[in-house]
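Entry 14. Structure prediction run on the chain below.
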Amino acid sequence: MGKLKLASSDRHTISSKVISELKKSMTQKIVDFTEIRDAKIHAENLSKSVISHEKMADYDPIHAIYIYAQNTISVLIEQLCELKPLMTISNAYADAEESYMPSGPPASPLTKSYFTCWGFFDLCTGMQRESLGTVAIDVSRALSMDQGLIKIFEYMEKSRMGFYIHEGVSGKFVYLREIITQQRIKAFSASGYVGKAGEIWYTRVMPEPFPELQFGYSVIFTSPYIMTEIIDGRVILAREENWLSFFDRNLAQTGIKDNRRAYEHMMKYGLNKNYWNEFIMDAYVNHQSDMIYLAGYHDIPLSKPHSRESQKKMGY
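Output returned:
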């Protein structure tokens, strides 16, 4: 397989320890990364390998690219988690998986796609905020994996959940505006749910991975959570001004003065490790196959139907 090298630009502490462990494992033939190392996504070959008529019939092309990358990084992470340097973060992932049992409603309001992205790319440790994703990317570089595939991994690692205002539908595309950044996005909804203008979506958007191919849109990678409020026993769509008020009340807790940066930090890392996982659990209302309804605001316990305070008020 050749020698493993840690690029000079990679200063992640856990990654350095993992790569050192890998060198030992590979000489002892404990871990075989040949298939992962040789996995390739070449932008110039996408039209042949991904965007075939058969693939188009099953998946949107950008969605297919991310599915391929997600499957590949999952295999890599599964093997890396056997190594001691990743024990702390892999245990945290396992503990959260046991607590929330992510499988989608009705068993759990946390979907597998949501939880996997959170566990791989948002759950982190240390001052350098290393995640399973950052380690996998550093190892991929050390293994001299295909640069196109590493680029997709990097987009996924940088991704985060966000709150988006639905501004309309055209064909298969949904038009969204992010609530704090005001960024406007044209996107394909992988779950198939296109919704309607005025809804507030809590979801993860992956960007167009190869701009040179000029697809011109992003992909909504996780099934959207649709935000609602419960008023006098009635479930109504949440209002933008109320979510703006929520962020006004809470962004300062990040310790970041710039509102945009504070919002981006809060959406990726929360105010504690399981901040958004707990919100989803407490706020679940209902679902259909392609989306999930949530109600309430994280800092107002009685607004969330499954919070301890709401359950106590109901006599449970």
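Confidence is low (pLDDT under 50) at residues 46-53.
Filed with the rest of this week's runs.
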